[in-house]
């Protein structure tokens, strides 16, 4: 019933927006469509920014008087019509589905993605409220059981078996777990290494991977688990700028979906590794250390300017600075130089037991 009420509210807003645009055009006026802008960070370190909040950060005005805006408004209205249809028929569609409804007009998937974000801002809602879903990439295993849309996910009976993370996270119900913590790993290869080593059988935990940069369902599902189970959550990423950026996406949200960051970020997440100092502590040979590329250095320097690393995570910033100072990076899999199961048997358990991770604030 609540979902139907929300859909009716969105349909009312869509009708009001379209009628307002048509009314302006019929009277020879060019409507000004204001799109609020949000951000998850800034690089003005001397200012008292509010990037950690959900407050708007200025407006972008779309008008028919600018040729570049005409195409963008056209795309926005076409996507809005598709969203209206999805809501009216109570159906779900992916961003890719929407793209293929007008491929010659949309030209590129990113055009649709931007229109969907603009619509969310205009309607003041999240993407899933539009019945627009992502194609889920995330995987989960461990001591967990839940239902989604009437379907039972019973990971507990086989804790080392991978299950895809539900796309319709809002329909996840009756979550049960006897886990002691949640472990988020950057890559599928590390996830599979833990599965092969029977990691979840030996350690009462839940393991999640977004297979790189996490999609929306993975981030929403992780946040749901943390809120409902009240478990500590650790994140394991490569010791390089891209691994760090993935960690930051889980913790602070992405700039692309900054308007929805408060529903996607996981402030409780703790950085388990890999740290630059781990290469010395665990005796990684020089062959395992790769020099930072020019792009790696550029990305690292840019990330060091993010306000949240100065205001909220100075300890994370120090580790990122150390990556840049050393000029080398390494992958989590490099720990296999000691033994194939070193990551599962030694590295992760010892870090959690000894508390050698960077806590959330």
TrEMBL record:
Active site: 100
GO process annotations (BP): meiotic DNA double-strand break formation; meiotic DNA double-strand break processing; reciprocal meiotic recombination
Example of a GO cellular component annotation carried by this entry: nuclear chromosome
Domain spans labelled Spo11/DNA topoisomerase VI subunit A N-terminal: 72-132
Molecular function as annotated in GO: ATP binding; DNA binding; DNA topoisomerase type II (double strand cut, ATP-hydrolyzing) activity; metal ion binding
Keyword Nucleus on entry: yes
Cofactors (names): Mg(2+)
InterPro entries, per the entry: Meiotic_Spo11, Spo11/TopoVI_A, Spo11/TopoVI_A_N, Spo11/TopoVI_A_sf, TOPRIM_Topo6A/Spo11, WH-like_DNA-bd_sf
Catalytic activity: ATP-dependent breakage, passage and rejoining of double-stranded DNA
Subcellular location: Nucleus
Keyword list, A-Z: DNA-binding, Isomerase, Magnesium, Metal-binding, Nucleus, Topoisomerase
Pfam families: TOP6A-Spo11_Toprim, TP6A_N
Occurrences of domain Topoisomerase 6 subunit A/Spo11 TOPRIM (ranges): 181-352
Main location group: nucleus
SUPFAM superfamilies reported in the protein's UniProt record: DNA topoisomerase IV, alpha subunit
Family membership: Belongs to the TOP6A family.
Name of the protein in question: DNA topoisomerase (ATP-hydrolyzing)
Organism name: Corchorus capsularis
């Amino acid at each position: 019933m609540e979902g139907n009420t929300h859909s009716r509210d969105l349909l009312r807003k869509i009708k009001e927006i379209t009628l307002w645009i048509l009314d302006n055009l019929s009277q020879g006026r060019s409507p000004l469509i204001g799109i609020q802008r949000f951000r998850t960070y800034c690089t003005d370190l001397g200012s008292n920014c509010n990037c950690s909040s959900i407050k708007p950060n200025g407006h972008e005005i779309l008008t028919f008087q600018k040729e570049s805006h005409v195409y963008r408004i056209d795309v926005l209205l076409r996507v809005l019509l598709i969203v209206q249809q999805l809501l009216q028929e109570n159906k779900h569609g992916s961003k890719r589905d929407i793209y293929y409804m007008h491929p010659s007009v949309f030209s590129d998937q990113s055009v649709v993605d931007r229109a969907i974000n603009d619509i969310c801002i205009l309607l003041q809602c999240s993407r899933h409220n539009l019945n627009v879903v992502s194609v889920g990439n995330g995987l989960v295993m461990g001591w967990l059981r839940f239902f989604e849309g009437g379907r039972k996910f019973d990971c507990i009976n086989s804790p080392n078996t991978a299950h895809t993370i539900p796309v319709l996270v809002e329909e996840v119900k009756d979550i049960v777990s006897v886990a002691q913590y949640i472990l988020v790993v950057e890559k599928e290869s590390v996830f599979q290494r833990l599965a092969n080593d029977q990691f979840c059988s030996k350690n009462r935990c839940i393991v999640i991977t977004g297979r790189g940069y996490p999609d929306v369902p993975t981030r929403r599902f992780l946040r749901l688990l943390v809120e409902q189970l009240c478990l500590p959550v650790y994140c394991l990423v490569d010791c390089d700028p891209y691994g760090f950026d993935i960690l930051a996406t889980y913790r602070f949200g992405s700039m692309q979906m900054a308007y929805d960051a408060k529903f996607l970020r996981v402030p409780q997440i703790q950085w388990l590794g890999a740290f630059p100092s781990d290469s010395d502590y665990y005796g990684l040979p020089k062959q395992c250390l790769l020099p930072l590329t020019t792009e790696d250095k550029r990305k690292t320097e840019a990330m060091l300017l993010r306000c949240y690393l100065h205001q909220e995570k100075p300890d994370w910033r120090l580790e990122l600075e150390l990556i840049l100072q050393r000029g080398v990076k390494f992958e989590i899999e490099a720990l296999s130089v000691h033994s194939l199961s070193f990551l599962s048997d030694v590295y992760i358990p010892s870090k959690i037991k000894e508390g050698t991770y960077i806590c959330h604030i």
